[in-house]
Every structure is written in structure tokens, then in C-alpha cells.
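Shipment paperwork, digital attachment
Item: protein structure file
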Amino acid sequence: MSLLAVGLSHRSAPLPVLERAALAAVDAHGLTDLLLAAEHLNDVVVLATCNRVEVYADTTRFHGGVGDVVRVLSGASGVDVDALTDHLYVHYDAAVADHLFAVTAGLDSMAVGESQILGQVRALWQRARARGVGRTLDELFQHALRVGKRAQSETGLDRRSNVLVDHALDRAAGALGTRVPRTLVVGAGAMAAVVVSSLARRRGDLADSADPWLTVVNRTRAGARRLAATAGPGARAAGWEELAAELAAAELVVTCTGSVGHVVDGRHLAAAGPHRLVLVDLALPRDVDPLAASVAGVTLLDLETLGAEVTALAGADEVAAARRIVTAEVDAWRAQQAAGGVAPTVVALREQAAAILEAELDRLDRRLPDLPGAAREEIRNAVRRVLEKVLHTPTVRVKELADAPGGSFYAEALRTLFDLEVADSVTDPGPVVSVVP
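Attachment content:
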């Protein structure tokens, strides 16, 4: 096993580069096929969310695997290899687990602690499983999901998860001069649900008023209805074909659809006519054409703008508690992998010993054919007990020592001393430093 992670996120890449990579990852199956066809990648999982595109791989060679991922991402996104490399981060072995666990816990998100990432990782892992992900990556992602659940249940980090949305709504309220403007939410997914919840909370004392204040537009009207119903009186749903008309009536538009291509462009704004409007684009790829910012009366806030403004607003204690969970779980994962790494050697040793035992017992049967059955069985059992006692200590100790520095030496020593044939699928990458821009 040689674990590798190559990716870029809001922390490492400017939005235009990240957006092009995200567009390439929209067809996750197609991108996965391209990666699996590469020379050095045995198995891959593509993790693409609104703020990151990452490839997790089981690879035969470290440097060859990195090169394969970079070439495929470059070809799929159209971003030049050199330009892409400037914004990539690379992790190997235990650093892969550390990074994925931190991502799933919400520690690496633009809004630190946001809980949507756990569901996104779970959905992507389930798709990979349905497609046929291998054991190494399957176990890694299962462990990551447990880490995410622990971070949510054992710390208060997820209570700060709406910081990005709240900051965007504060900016919009400041620009419009009203706390609860006439709002259009485009999309009905997890992020849209966070937006609607925050808007309803801000509406506060007006919750019993049926005055129209919120419209949800989605490609499926049923999804829009379900989300609008959570906001209480005055919230309604509209169909996708009504988007232009709803834009004309709105003061605040929040988009988060995950669509490919812009859903709001200059034509929509021209049809809406001149009026004061704040557009908040929380999608990647972007829902709103960046040229919208040049339209008179329009204020555009996208992830690039908001990400530069949202700093470490999560509580230091919660972050530290979640970080401790990640560190402990990485140690547990390493111990599990180390024990699994020596398992083939232990199995080979026991199989060799069992084969020798059976050969000698067969020899005994041939030499003493008249030995009574009860005596023959007692001899067999006695020899097996001796063999088990002789093997017990070295097999237990090699598992215990596997996670110590140089732990692989003990399994190697067993293979050398007993001339064991064990398939070795791990290729040493040489000295490697995990790089995070």
C-alpha cells in the first residue's frame, strides 16, 4: 500500500483555477476512469466539494503517482501543468490520513467547523464504493467518517459552522440597509438549507407574518417547496423557468446550485432592470457570471471575496479539541495499518509451520502404521500445542512492534529467518515531505 493525496483548495489556489478544476471533477466517473487508466494508480477516490478538488490514490510509486494525477487533472481542466502544480498540495502515507481526517472534521473548511463536509465526504465515498473502491481507500474513508462524527459530537466546533453564511448575510444587510431583504435563494441542497435557516433565524419577531419575503427556486419544484416550507410563513417556491422574473423582484439573491455553467448572467440582470441588488454566490463552479459585478446597482459577493474576509472565527478551544481527536485517530489508523502490514508475514509463517507439521505427521503415519488411533491423535494434538506455543510470542510481538519506529524491520527479519514468500505491494517513495502551500 502506498497512499497518496494530491489536491487543491481555497487555501492553495485562486478561485479561477479552483473553479476550472471543479468543472473537470463534475464528471466524477469520467475523471476516475482517466485516473485509473494511468500507469501508477491502482485505485482512486475523487473528493470534489465546493472548496476543494482532491484525488486520493493507492499507488505503486509515489513520484509516478503524483505525475499521473497532475497530468490527468491538467488535461481534464485545461489548466497548464506548471500553473496547476503551483497550487497543488501533496500528502503521502500517514499525512494522507491526517489531511482527510481534518477535512472531514471541518478543520480545513473555509468556514471552520462546517458540518456539510461530513455529508459530502460520505456521499462521495458511497459512490466510490458502489463503483468498486479497494480495501485500502475504503478503510481510510470509513475511518475518516468516524473522525468527522466524533468531531461533531465531542466538540462544539459544528456550532460555528454557519460563519461563512452569516458573514455573507451580514455583508448583504449592510449593503442593502435592511436585515431581512426580499430574498431569492437559488438551489435547494445542503448549503441552501443553511442559508434559509440563517435567514429565518434573522427574521425573528416577524416569523408570524405572511408577507412575502423569501422565494426558493430550484430545478425541481418539489425540492424548492420542501426547503421553503422550513422557513415558515411568507416563504414560497418557484420553478426554474421563473428565475428571471424572481430576480427582478429580489433585493438579495443567494445562489448555491452546483450547476455547470452560470445560472445568473448579464441577460438575467438586464431583464431584471436597474435596481439595487446584492448577489451572493456560494457555489463552485460559480453560479454567477463575474461580469455581474460591473452592472450598475449590483454588488457581487463570491467565495473569493468572502474567503478573504472570513478569518479564524471558530473558537480556539473547539478547534484544539477537534485537532486532538484528529491526531489520536491518525495514531490509531497508523497502528491499524502497521498491524495489517505484518499480517501477511504472520499468515505466511503460520502456513509454513502448518505445512511442516502436516508433512511430519504424515511421515509418522507411514513409519508407524500400527499405532493405535487414540495414541496417534494424542501425538497430533501435543505437537500442535507445542507449535502454537512456539509461534505465539513472535507473532504477538511482531504485531506489537509494527507501529514502533523501524517496525517493518521485525516482519522483514521473520521473512528472512524463515525464508517466507510474502507479496510486498508497497514501494518506498524515498524521502518525501508533505507540502501544503
